[in-house]
Specification:
The protein is α+β, with helices and mostly antiparallel strands. The chain is built from 20 helices and twelve strands. It folds into three domains: 97 residues, no CATH class; 141 residues, no CATH class; 221 residues, MetI-like fold (Orthogonal Bundle), CATH 1.10.3720.
Length: 582
Amino acid sequence: MTDTSIAPPATGTRTFDYGSDEALARVKRRYQAEGRFKLYGLLAVLFAGAFVFVLLADIVRKGMPAFFEHRVVMTLDLDASLIDPTGRREVDALRNGDYNKIVMDAWRANFPEVTQRAERRRLEALVSSGAADDLRGAILRDPSLIGKKLRFPVLLSDDADLHFKGLSTGMSAVAGNGALDVQVNGREVTLIGSGQPFATILADVKAGLLRDADRANAELARLPASQQGGQNVALDAKRAELTARVADLKRRAGDAGGAEMIDFAAMPSRIVRAEGAFIQLREIGPASAKGFLLVAPQRAITRLDAWTVTTFATPESNRKASDADIAWLESLNARGVIEKAFATRFFTSGDSREPELAGIRGALIGSALTLLVTLIVCLPLGVGAAVYLEEFAPKNRLTDILEVNINNLAAVPSIVFGLLGLAMFLNFFGLPRSAPLVGGLVLALLVLPTIIIASRAALSAVPPSIKEAALGVGASHQQAIFHHVLPLAMPGIMTGTIIGMAHALGETAPLLMIGMVAFIVDIPQAVTDPGTVLPVQIYLWSDLPEIAFQAKTAGAILVLLAFLFIMNGAAILLRRRFERRW
């Protein structure tokens, strides 16, 4: 028998010339497509990163003012008759001293010209209600201060604080043109110049009148057309009012040399500053102006050689700080008695209805207690369930159903767990409402599936040879699992647990359902005391109308993000430190 070779068929063969122009073009197109795909991926990452950067930058910009506060340093007369009339230095007597009168007497002494009752109330409102408590704390720490004079930083109110943080109104100052003769009648002031020192200011006021006329014209154009027979009397009256207003504004704007009264409801305010005096301009002409003395000068004046005009961008009716408030604050700032300090009370105080006194300590303690309950409940249950399902449970229909339900529970909306906690822990078991105990139990239900899944993954990642070696030297199945497999899987289990705790820390919806949305001033001391958590505190502050609470909200978000970053970073470090490459 001889070997035979079978030649390939002569027909149907196809040869490829990998060096041809067509092949090189195909390779080039593949490389181009791959390059475009990489570029699209890079652009997607940069696009998402830009959004995250803008979000974080906006939160930081809004939240940084919450970490600082402004105070006025004054000399307080610690009169013993107001603090400790008995002279026995008893703690109860010192607590009941009239510290508010001490603070207010020193505060009013800065502005002796403020005598009217309404003005005095506005002046006193610039000092925080917590200033007296700060002074009380200082006296309780050192009773030897009683009877002495003390330089003490007095906390300003939220409106005053917002002004110094630039959140009240924009201000621009220009130097005055020429000297002014000053005529004072009580607190009414007339400023007269030799030329036309107020011509530029008057021109700005006239320009503002034209802008008001344009806005009124636009509003007039938006009104529906007149109906035949005058059926809509109110609409016709509104149209006639706007028409007359437009005509009046244009007439006044056209009279370039005519004096103008300042409408504080619609026009920016203008304040003349000189020699420590603050004069609110109320009528402006090209050569003279009339105003009201908000802050008295350092000395009697009849002539001003150097003066400035400060314009407040926002009309007085659209801001909480009036012209007088700003004048008082700016006069103190000019004296150098206003100081900016780190707001430690933001971390050491509980919630408050006064923005400058509100802090996150209660929410931080509540979050810590809630997470403690969550950890104590879900860690042993989660790890135990994972060990049983992975190593001991028989593979049958029941365990398959359990595994499917655990995986499904990890995707259930968090508010469902809140409804479950409301029905079970509050209505059935009667546990205290708005307590970290209930919050921790609800969050434990929420986190439990995550810990079980992460723990099972960590256990399955341990090589079977570890268990087989333990069994081979005579260890029981239980000893092989708990003495060898579980310790090696612990880094992965702890990583999953930390990620689950970080998830629980940021949850709000389930806690709202169990009543942790209440206004809590006191700091919780136990898991059964009423409390709240940081995400809920952020939710409460975000719903408040005061501008100062917007900064508090953003500041609390920064603290929450910091905790989340720390917890996730700890999980990454733990995994890198203890994980093993099998």
